[in-house]
Design brief:
With 224 residues, the chain is an alpha/beta fold. The protein contains six helices and 13 strands. The protein is globular.
């Protein structure tokens, strides 16, 4: 089985937790894409739900799949969010933001009663920051100065897209990808980075996931 199949089986398994009339947070990324396709099929078969997308990309896919959408202003409480992750440790701490939607994903996470994360087995690590850089969203103004302070924490960061063509998030900000030799205290690093002026948010998610569904070569595995 290839990686895409592992993503697909994990994502489709997560959709089994969706119930009639739920408000569902719709994550961003290549694994959640398969969940969106499945949810679209379920809606066309008669399921009534309301989706709250975490990015413009997810919103576009959801509309193509005929998934009814709303906002946090109208539905401030989300019963279930299905999202992906770029790295998951043994304590269900996450690194997110590979899809550049980390700020909206964290806002949705904080509004959610239950969060289910879907990944393939390559995303599971004993310690965060060993296989994936940590995304940090920063404002454009003075970004070079912000980067210098961020680098004091992570050692080295790169402006995503490069200086001449930097990636722009849905919020109109830049992203620094920060390289760590393992993040042994993710809660501490999350707070340290967010205390830097110019940092909007970072991709460490601590104590937010309720369940991780993992697509493996041997089938579905769970972390609770």
């Amino acid at each position: 089985m290839n990686t895409e199949h592992l993503k697909k089986i994990a994502a489709e398994k997560a959709t089994e937790e969706i119930q009639e009339d739920m408000v569902v947070g719709l994550g961003t990324g290549s694994t959640v894409y398969f969940a969106l396709l499945k949810i679209g099929s379920m809606v066309r078969d008669g399921l009534n739900i309301i989706g709250i997308p975490t990015s413009s990309g997810t919103e576009k896919i959801a509309k193509e799949q005929d998934i009814p959408l709303s906002t946090l202003a109208t539905h401030p409480t989300i019963e279930l969010t299905i999202d992906g992750a770029d790295e998951v440790d043994e304590h269900l701490n996450l690194i997110k933001g590979g899809g550049a939607a980390l700020v909206r994903e964290k806002i949705i996470a904080n509004a959610s009663k239950r969060i289910v994360i879907v990944v393939d087995e390559s995303k599971v690590s004993r310690v965060l920051g060993t296989s994936f850089a940590l995304p940090v969203e920063i404002v454009k103004f003075g970004w070079e100065a912000t980067k210098r302070v961020v680098d004091k924490i992570c050692g080295q960061s790169e402006l995503r897209g490069g200086i001449h063509n930097p990636l722009m998030t849905d919020n109109g900000n830049y992203i620094l990808d920060c390289h760590f030799d393992g993040i042994t205290d993710p809660e501490k690093i999350e707070l340290q980075l967010n205390n830097i002026p110019g940092v909007v948010e970072n991709g460490i998610f601590v104590n937010r996931a309720d369940r991780v569904i993992i697509g493996t070569m041997n089938g579905i595995e769970y972390m609770e």
